[in-house]
Amino acid sequence: MRITRRMAGLAVAVTAASSWLTLANPVQAQSPTGAAHATLHSCAAPAAGTAACHAVLRTDVAPLAGGGTAAATPSGYGPADLQSAYRLPSATAGAGQTIAIVDAYDDPTAEADLGVYRSQYGLPPCTTANGCFRKVDQNGGATYPRKDGGWAQEISLDLDMASAVCPNCKILLVEAKTSSFANLGAAENTAARLGATVISNSYGGSDASDATYGSYYNHPGVAITVSSGDSGYGVEYPASSHYVTAVGGTSLTRSGTTRGWTETVWNGAGSGCSTYNTALSGQASVGTGCAKRAVADVSAVADPNTGVAVYDSTAYQGYVGWLVFGGTSVSAPVIAGVYGLAGNAASIDNNYPYAHAGSLFDVTSGTNGSCPTTQWCTARAGWDGPTGLGTPNGVDAF
């Protein structure tokens, strides 16, 4: 069976292998040990001209109600885990930076839920009252869109991951009226106009041309991160845009190595070659094998089976409280947070990691499917599609 959809008049086909598109039949994600775990994608399949979010909820982990206690610690990785895994200077860097989170629809409990997360992990408060948090609609006002529980999960995930990695950064939440690319693009422009130094985007649709949508993502001096997708090999937009950092995904586990962690490809991470958009100049020397823009550039944890703790009180499909999430909706705001810690966005562009690949952890094992050219879907030394150049080892590559 094939599912056909259009994006601004462009007909594309998506195989039914993207099992997360059917919420009634949650995809069974494989753990690093091979055990199957039930997951649920937070957003329904995108209709014509729209995007889906890339949050993947673990449904086999019982939600923890309330704010959590010392005796009832939330499941999933917390800020200390991410900061350790990626050797981040989160305690001392990020002041003066603003990370914008662009998502669709309204999360009416976004600020309150963020407060629960930050309090649980001992992070400084980030509120409207203290000037750290700001929420606007896609035009910069306060006419918020309608509530959507699935996108509210996405928003909570994004806010929590940005906080986990860069607790000293300010956060700007920009809510698009719908998940159409026109509305998400308007929100993107608003985020840049309101002074964001970094913008995180955890959504995607079929590959498309920058000639149609690129003006939304072309903001020199702003680091823009985008999820590569959660359906394995295959490229999405806006991850395929020439103007963004495309973020793939890994499975992250503790180990007895000097680093203390190991990473392999998450089999859901998106990758591949754009049909439309120009390759980054930095990609010329890494052997992507793509005639045009290759995805991904860098990566971070995304496997739901090695997922992160998130607090969300706007219920979706009955899930509420402390939850465990994966998907490249985790990795995009994690990398946005790393850009915030680096504080270099005004003077660099998305080619910068290619000139500083030695400051990344190379991911050299795992695959996200079958593809015509091996490195598009299978990890290797150096660049590969699912994990790009690798994952953060401090902030020097950003």
UniProtKB/TrEMBL annotation:
This is S53 family peptidase. It comes from the Bacteria. PANTHER family: PROTEASE S8 TRIPEPTIDYL PEPTIDASE I CLN2, TRIPEPTIDYL-PEPTIDASE 1. Its EC number is 3.4.-.-. It is an enzyme of class 3 (hydrolase). GO terms for molecular function: serine-type endopeptidase activity; tripeptidyl-peptidase activity. The keyword Protease applies. The keyword Hydrolase applies. PROSITE patterns: SEDOLISIN, SUBTILASE_SER. Residues 1-29 form the signal peptide. Residues 76-398 form the Peptidase S53 domain. Keywords: Hydrolase, Protease, Serine protease, Signal. One of its GO terms (biological process) is proteolysis. InterPro entries: Peptidase_S8/S53_dom_sf, Peptidase_S8_Ser-AS, Sedolisin_dom, Tripeptidyl-peptidase_I.
